[in-house]
Amino acid sequence: MALKIAFIGLGAMGGPMASNIIRKGTPLTVFDIAQTNLDRVVAVGGTAAASVAEAAKDADIVITMLPATKHVLEVAAGPDGVLDNMKPGGILMDMSTIAPSGTDQLIEICKTRGVCFLDTPVGRLASHAIAGKSLFMVGCDDEAVFSAVKPLLDAMGDTIIRCGRPGTGIRIKVVNNFQILSIAQITAEALTLAEKLGLELETVKSVNGSTTATNGQMQVNFATKTLLGDTAPGFTIELAHKDLGLAMEAAGELGLTLPMGATAKATYDTARQGPYGAKDFSALLDYACEQAGIAPPRLKAPASAA
Length: 306
Ligand code: NAD
Description:
Elements (H helix, E strand, L loop, with lengths): L4 E4 L5 H10 L5 E3 L3 H8 L4 E2 L3 H5 L4 E4 L4 H9 L4 H4 L5 E4 L5 H14 L2 E4 L2 E2 L2 H6 L2 E6 L3 H14 E8 L3 H29 L4 H9 L6 H9 L12 H17 L5 H15 L10 H9 L14
Parallel strand pairs: 1-2, 1-4, 2-3, 4-5, 5-6, 8-9
Antiparallel strand pairs: 7-8
Helix pairs in contact: 1-2, 1-8, 4-6, 9-11, 9-12, 9-13, 9-14, 12-13
This protein binds nicotinamide-adenine-dinucleotide.
C-alpha cells in the first residue's frame, strides 16, 4: 500500500516545496491555516486536510515547514497534533528554522512516542524552492530513515548535506543564517554609503564581485530582488529577525557574545516595526536609504530583447 505523506505549512517555502513533490509524482496530504496557501498546493494536486490532526492521521511521514519554534512544537506535540495522530514508527521531518533547544525537545518527545525524527532545515532563497533547487542540512544518523525521505528531498532540491545526528542540521542552519543576515546588513550599509558617495551601482557591484568582498547578498539576493525594485518576500525581515535571535540565543546559552550579530539584530528589530517587517530582507537597503534620506539605488533595467 502507498505511504501516506503529509506536508504542513505551505507558505513562501513550504508551498513550492510541497508542489514540487506532487509534480514529481508523489501524492501529498497538505494543510495550512491560511486557505489561500492551502488552495495553491491543492491546485497542483495536493489533497487538502481540514486540520493538523486530519493531515497527520495514520501518516507514515509528516513534513513540517512552519514559521518558528512555538508553531512547530504546537503542531507536532500539542493536543491532537502530529504525534497524537501519525503512525507509530513513522517519520517526522521538521524543515523549519527553529531554536536548536526546540529541536532537542522534539527529539526527546519523538523518542518517547516511538516516532523517528530528523531536522532538515532548508538553505537558499524562496526562488530556489520554486525552482526545486533548495539545499538541505540533514540531521539524521539513521540510514533507513534517511533513505525513506531522500526521494522527497530530491524532488524539492538539488543539494543534500548530511550534518550528523538529529539536532546538527538546525545548528548548522542557525550558524549559516547568522552569516547571511549579518552580511545582508553590511551589504545594505555599503550600498547606502556608495549611493551617498555618488558611485555607479553597476561598478560597485562589479568590483565587489571581483574581490574577496564578494558575497551572495550583493551578487544574488539583492541583485535579483531590491536592486530590481522587487521587495516582495522571499524571506521576510520579520523571519530574518527571528533567525538572528536564534543565533544570539544559541550563543548566549554557551556564554558567547556575537557583537556583529547583536548590532545587525538591533537594525532588523527597528526595521521590522513598520511596513518593512513583511518585506524581503534585501529591503534592508531601502530601509537604510530611508534612514539616510536618499532614494535606494536600482540596477539599470536589462536591455529589452526587441
Ligand atoms: P511563511 O510565513 O511564508 O509560511 C509559513 C506557513 O505556515 C504559512 O503559510 C502559515 O499560514 C503556516 N502556519 C502557521 N501556523 C500554522 C499551523 N498551526 N498549522 C498549519 N500551518 C501553519 O514562512 P516561510 O518563508 O515559508 O518559512 C518557513 C520556515 O522556513 C521558517 O522557519 C523560515 O525561517 C524558514 N526558511 C525560510 C526561507 C525563505 O527564504 N523564505 C528560506 C529558508 C528557510
